Amino acid sequence: MSKGRSSKLSRRLIRRLRNELGLDIPEDTPFYRTYSGHWQRKRGAWSWWFSVESGPLSRYQIGSPYSMTYLMKYPKLCVYTDKSLYGPRILEILPDGILI
User: Fold this and answer.
1) Is the pLDDT of residue 82 over 80?
2) Ranges assigned E (strand) in 1-100
């Protein structure tokens, strides 16, 4: 897994997630690449993720098995939410129309 970093592409994706899906993500949030292989991603492993803390009790992770480049090319995105009572909330970003 890479160190947290920010790039033009990640900042553009963050802006899109904020505008299109209403997610509260600071623009300078670092992202992490997982370097998962084809078969791992096919089974749902994320290829990148963000970790966001929006308050003392509100923490969540955002990621996707799809590359940032692929998501930026897709016309519409959707979010799949897994709300955990004990851990961080998980938000998975998917191209709209993709079934999980």
Assistant:
1) no
2) 31-33, 48-53, 59-64, 77-82, 89-95
